[in-house]
Amino acid sequence: MVRPQLVGRRPARAGFTLVELLVVIAVIGILIGLLMPAVQKAREAANRISCANNLKQISLAMHHYHLDFGKLPPRARLAGSADANNGAGATWAVLIMPYLEQDNLYKQWDLSRRYYDQNDAARRGFVRIYFCPTRRSAGSSPEASTSGDQSVLADGSLASNVAGALGDYAVNLGTMSYM
Questions:
Q1: Which of 105, 108, 126, 128 lies closest to 118, judged by CA?
Q2: Given 45, 72, 92, 154, which is the most exposed site by the fewest CB atoms within 10 A?
Q3: pLDDT (tens digit, 0 to 9) for every residue of the chain, 179 residues total?
Q4: Closest CA to 121 of 101, 96, 144
Q5: Which residues of 68-88 are buried (b: 16+ CB within 10 A; e: fewer)?
Q6: pTM of the prediction?
Q7: Closest CA to 170 of 92, 106, 115
Q8: d(CA 98, CA 68)
């Protein structure tokens, strides 16, 4: 059987028109727009969980320190004579480093020396667990403290800033009388 040829008609082509293509692109754009907030919420939830896990690890390290020494770590360990700086040596954050698998950084600290007398590698060393990913990450700006880490000189004035590593967590360990 022979089909008759239609005069003046073009054969139908398989494919999409420009309008159909633009509609599909618009629908995909809307779906991506709806999906982005969900992805950001999931990322923020993961960061909050990571932050809570960091606090848990710090508290476990405190408890392990307590098991080894019979007391929680001091606010700051005395190093040298108690002067206007209260002999400010290694803080609780340094003393629990071995329990946070930070032995290499802990070994760079000379516990008999004041904070201000430590080498830069010890003072500026990053401990990732001390950073809450919701707030910032280790190594983000600023990389070191820019103020507040000043020793008190004999005449009562402040020495220049001694930059040190930063963290996002703080601990209340009582009064100075427990050092």
A1: 108
A2: 154
A3: 555 565 566 666 677 788 889 999 999 999 988 888 888 898 889 988 999 999 999 999 999 999 999 988 887 777 665 554 555 778 888 899 999 999 898 998 888 887 778 888 888 888 888 888 887 765 566 666 665 566 666 677 777 767 777 777 777 766 555 44
A4: 144
A5: eeeebbbbbbbbeeeeebbbb
A6: 0.68
A7: 92
A8: 12
